[in-house]
Amino acid sequence: TPAYGPVDLTNCEAEPIHVPGAIQPHGVLLAVDPDSLAIAIASANCHELLGISADRAHGTRLGEVLGPDLAAQVRRRAAEGAFHEPLIAFLPGSLAGSLAGVEVDVSLHRSGARLVVEIESLGRPRSVLLSYQSARAAMGRLSAQTSVSDLAEQLAREVGEMTGFDRVMVYRFDRDWNGEVIAEERRPDLNPFLGLHYPASDIPAQARRLYTVNWTRLIADVDYAPVPLEPVLDPGTGAPLDLSFSTLRSVSPIHLEYLQNMGVTASMSISLVIDGELWGLIACHHYSGPHRPSQDARAAAEFLGQVASQQIADRARGDARERALQRSATLGRIAGRAAATHRPLLDSLLEDPELLTLMAASGVALSYDGTQRSLGDVPDPAVQALVAQRLLGPEDGSVGHTDRLAELDPALTDRAGLPAGALAIGTLPDRWLVWFRSELEQSVDWGGDPHNKQLAASEDGSIRLSPRKSFDKWRETVRGRSRPWDEEDVEAARELRSRINGLLLKGSRDQIEVAE
Ligand code: BLA
């Protein structure tokens, strides 16, 4: 049984991926005391790369292992708080390990009371200028794209060029954290994933949380053997070292199995974060063996990801502004017409076709002082009342909505002609307004049957959840759902209510004046 307890359907989310106690073998990790730079934890491959065993490294100063120059640079960076900025250094030729005299990438970060130093040999000859200039040029090409989908396509092309992966996808999350491949650049002989959907459980919640703060991860070789940290528990705290910000962090074995099932040999993903929320990922695959782009290529790709996130956010804000303007113009016209009529206000309101356009609805019904009126496609009055008063229950003045009405009450299942979605807003128990949306039959192409997560027996006999084995396109037809309602719909309903109430109030005052 794993340390995080018995295995059940929630164990994906329970795996503590930030404290694996191990790293990937393409580099060395040293965790040091930030003042003395004395080594407290070293990865077990220390000897191979630096010529000193993890055992002997403990208590040794960083300068004795990496040379005084590099140790001084590390100290200076740490003092400046310049973590996460890649550092380029030559290791001393006097080392006994395979990194002797080699140019390396060094990355630094704080983890609890430790300073963590990670050293990787360069993936290929460095060309700093090329990375900077190419990133700048790529940024220009991104800015030239007007739609989100063009932007995503350009981003996939640029990251593919920069990192050399066989396939680069832009993966966008929906509100339930399922995802869709919205852009793809791939080697021509690979089958396309464009347009395929993947369930939320493929990237569980703790991974999404981690990816919101740490934007890049690389799995240079999915068949790697994890290299343990020695000791696994920090002697200073008795706790495992938090590797949330480590570039070498050993990744979840369940995810490695997933990638192996997919035929992937190396993987990288970069977070697309908008307003502090994970919007999507740039997901990269390699299929022809290990693949490790240099740190600066990774950093340039991450930078482009940030630029693209910003541009996506700008476009989304622009679109939202445009929609808000249109909505408010529609509201204004509806209220204007209602105010101008000499007939009873609610009669004329329920004849205004823009009452439907306003909410992209197929029908609307109103109950006021015991009378029910409707426009467009609506269920019978008893069902209208059931939905508006009991099921969506907005008596307290709130707004209730659903995009799957039939699921709310057994009395509604299999009812012919029932709209699939409803949004209700009310004031008093017998005053409400409810809009209906008709069914929007959708087919979703999944990258493998998402329900097919298997419970497999592991070697020790325990049962665990394993990733699916087939990623073949699996088409699901979704019935009984409408287009979902969003916050903008709720706002428009509130605004309309307050305008109607204002007009009713004014109308009753006018009537009183006439009566006097
Ligand atoms: C992580 N899952 C991930 C990551 C991706 C995906 C991109 C980030 C790590 C990486 O960059 O490789 C999923 N990859 C995809 C998807 C596509 C793709 C959807 O290329 C589509 C084309 N996964 C499962 C199950 C579990 C699970 C059943 O299928 C759990 C039982 C877990 N996925 C899982 C975990 C991680 C993960 C734990 C975090 C890996 C880590 O960072 O340690």
Task: Name its key features.
binds biliverdine IX alpha; 14 helices; 7-stranded antiparallel beta sheet; 516 residues; alpha+beta; 6-stranded antiparallel beta sheet; 34% helix
Describe the structure.
The protein has about 525 residues and is α+β, with helices and mostly antiparallel strands. It is about 35% helix and about 25% strand. The protein contains 14 helices and 22 strands. The protein has helices at about 10-15, 45-50, 55, 60-65, 70-80, 130-145, 150-165, 205-215, 255-260, 295-340, 345-350, 355, 380-390, 485-515; strands at about 20-25, 30, 40-45, 85-90, 105-110, 115-120, 165-175, 180-185, 195-200, 215-220, 225-230, 265-275, 275-285, 365-370, 370-375, 400, 420-425, 430-435, 440-445, 455, 465, 475-480. Strands 1-11-3-2-6-5-4 form a 7-stranded antiparallel beta sheet. Strands 9-8-7-13-12-10 form a 6-stranded antiparallel beta sheet. It has a 5-stranded antiparallel beta sheet with strand order 15-14-18-17-16, sandwiched between helices. Helix 6 (about 130-145) packs antiparallel against helix 7 (about 150-165). The model has no long low-confidence stretch (mean pLDDT about 90). Biliverdine IX alpha binds near residues 207, 217 and 219.
